[in-house]
Amino acid sequence: MAYVTVSDEQPIVRLQQVTKVIGRRTIIDGLTLDIPPAEVLGFLGPNGSGKTTTIRMMVGLMRMTKGDVLIGGHSVRDEYEKAIRHVGAIVENPEMYKYMTGFQNLLHFSRMVPGITTQRIDEVVQLVGLKERIHDKVKTYSLGMRQRLGVAQAIMHKPSLLILDEPTNGLDPAGIRELRDYLRKLAKEEGIAVFVSSHLLSEMELMCDRVAIIQAGKLIDVRIIQSAAQLADTTGSVLFEVDRPDDAVALLAKHEAARMDEGALVRADRETVARINAELVGAGIQVYGIRVLNKSLEDQFLEMTGGSPLV
Amino acid sequence: MYNFLQLVRNENMKIYRRIGTWIMFAIILVIVVVVSILSKVFDDNGTGSLWSVMNNIESFTYLLITIFTVVVSAESVAGEFSSGTIKLLLIRPWSRSKILLSKYIALLQFALTLSIVMLISSFVLNLVLFGYGDAKTANEALGVANNSGPFSYMLQVYVLDYIGLIMIVTLSFMLSTLFRSGGLAIGLSMFIYFFGIIASGLLSMLDYAWVDYLLFLHLNLKQYLGSEEITHNLTMGFSLSVLVGYYLLFVAITWYVFNRRDVAT
Description:
The structure holds 2 protein chains of 2 kinds. By secondary structure, chain A is an alpha/beta fold.
């Protein structure tokens, strides 16, 4: 893409010691985070942890008390117009002008950035699947359609950073799946950095390459989300569901098997799992199922945030 | 930087895509038509003329244009805050000052368009109903102490009332920005306007020097068209200077607050 000036290795966005103090309360405390291109980065935290405030500061809706955000090398503080030029965003709900049609809304926002043709508007309308309804007034749209219109205005000017605040709010499962696939595609094929906030862990696990976890205004961890295939290559807890758990545990004593209600739990990698299975079958034990019990992000998240309520 | 006029075009689009805007235009036109026709029908002794009806329409209906523009101004800023669209509007490669300026310009354009519609429609309609007449000056036509031609006099009346409108609309634009509540901006600016008119009438009877600097004493600029000086020996020049002072204050507060404010809706 022509206007991605930074090289692939360099982050598109750098949050540097971003701090927000309102009154005496420190809402965001020295947040430092890099967002690389071609990646979906999740921003995860319980409600009230400062996700939306951080996003508002990134797009200049709120002032930073301290620190700075660099987007494509430009400071949001000092060169706002340059910094925001390559950002597309939905902050909280995708509020549009309800008395205008979807198309008029897109036309409105397209006039604020140079070089967006009506052809490009048609293209994004097609992309988000609103072709049939684009000339209807926004007040007749469902929440899902508004969300898609919101995505359309955010990607219309081909941004290098796409920020979505709680994008799955109000979407049905099909809509969530569609959005998820689309965001991954944008990141992989167009090299866009996608920054998505959410308090829904399961959603983040499916959508993101990495998640940054925030709690009470502080960044507490950034971790890579592993795919199922990657997990299989590492040693993990594997549960064998069998008909005679006691026999299975005895048989697998050398694997330090533990007796569970439904069967035997062992720690094993991919190859070992296959061998254990053969052993069990060989001993005449019925194997009903083999499950990898990796610690879900949710468990890790709860551990880290001390089990504070999530929803 | 990309064409600033596109921003004004956007603001105009948002004004004219509302049904309410067209109702405002319709109301003005209906008033002009009804008042003109009634004036003709009940003009028993033949004293009515193009100029007298035009002048009557202006003096009773211009207030309505002011109120309509105040309503639109409240929607223009506060409305974007209450609907949340302000967030999408501000995250574009434009400074907040320019976005606010585009709104302000669109607003003054709207008031100007309404004024022109009223001026032209009342002139044309009454020209048809009453004919041009043979009055050479405003004095002959309307009995005011002014020697301009009657049409030029009416134009001056409109221009001076438009200046008064700018003051009220700038005030409501400021209130709309300060409180981010359309209802409050409309209510408060109309209250200040009407209360000011009444209070300034009473206050002008007082013999204090500070009374001369009250905004409301200077909003009715067309009073200077008929005479050089009015109560308190005020002159047009003095009134305009006071208005400029208030104007700069309103504009400074509006832009300062809009630029500084965190958008947290």
